Amino acid sequence: MSQSDTQIDSRALSATPYIWNILAIAVGTQAAGSIVSQGVYILVPFWREAFGITLASASLAVTVMNGVQIATMYSFGRAIDTYGERKVVSLAMLGMALAMTAAAAFAENLIVLLICMAFLGGTYAAVQPGGTRAIMRWFPPNRRGIATGFRQAAVPFGTMIAAAVLPYFAVRYGWHMAAWIGAGVSLFGALLFWGLYREGNMVTAKAAAPLPLKTLIQTVGKEANFWPVLRLGIAMSAFQFTFTAHVISYLVDHFGLSIVVAASLFAATQFAGIPGRVLLPWLSDHYRPSRRAHSLAVISLMAAGTAVILALLPTNVPLPVVLGVLVVLGLFGIGWFPLYLLEIAEAAPKSSIVSTVAFASTICLAVMALGPYIFGLIADNFGYEFAWAALILPVLITGCQLLPRRASLNSDSI
Q1: Can you list the domains of the chain with their CATH numbers?
Q2: What 3-state class would DSSP assign to 19?
Q3: For the chain, which terminal residue's Cβ has fewer other Cβ atoms within 10 angstroms, N or C?
Q4: CB neighbours of 245 closer than 8 A, spacing ≥ 6?
Q5: What does the buried/exposed string (b/e) look like for 156-174 if buried means 16 or more CB atoms within 10 Å of the residue's CB?
Q6: CB 52 within 8 A of CB 37
Q7: CB 245 within 8 A of CB 162
Q8: Does the predicted TM-score (pTM) go above 0.85?
């Protein structure tokens, strides 16, 4: 890869304790954002029941949230490259708090809810690329794998908290209370990042303007693994987030579980993803440093294979078996993302790291926005078997295409 990462001041590399403080701030902010954004997926069954609508219609909340992210992600990326992550991420998380406040206070029908989810998606678009910029800014190359792993572990950690907490409050007090909790968590994330994160004088080329989109695509497209990795990332993004949106409903409908038990199993899946997002990149960096893309393909195929097993389980299977399959699926189906993110970020020109991540994320978001709705349509009309097949096949195809490839050797790999 080009390794056109940010140049880091030599004094910063000696400030090891401080970079871990930065990581803690990034992890906390990402976890807060994930509790809120992933909470939307978890609340889909509650909206389905509250508004008396179909699964596909309830899934429009996810589709709209992700769809508006598509429209705003690249613009936020360029804004972060230009103005810095502290201002943009903090303001965006404040916007998330306002969106959830509006949902809690005014969303009494699907239309109003979708408007709120659109605003939520538009503001959440800054959180993921902004945190990536923080890692690339502060961490030396030989520590980015573990740092990215820890930060990305905040996503399933936040989702696990949402799965464990939001259904309880939604059942006991109504889904509006769950939305109020989301508003408070978003506000906490905004205050945390604004109050504690500092950008410092870390980037010697900070004044360089982000590349225009056409030039950026031409530049990163020269990297041998960029497009194959991006295609697999698209398939895995659709896989992970459609699974997130529908697994609770699937567990309820297929295995006859209560919604609270199903949500608890989903929380266990997210819990398994936390060590997955740390352990898998650590293993790749230490034992297969020159084959990161190959490792990504293997992990993705493991996730797809486990999903096949879940789809084929009979309805009367013992609950511990379901739990075991979900734990394995969480390990690989969630743990894949740090390797993908590093492959994309390290291919980027140093002036356009966030723009590159945002460009790749925008494409992924396009299928993420459509995935839950299409899965719901297929499940409503043809059954879950066909819906699972439509979700798993793209991962199998793109993963096998990348499997024979050897990831290009990085000069600064561990």
Answers
A1: 10-199+213-402 (1.20.1250.20)
A2: helix
A3: C
A4: 41, 44, 59, 62, 371, 372, 375
A5: bbbbbbbbbbbbebbbeee
A6: no
A7: no
A8: no
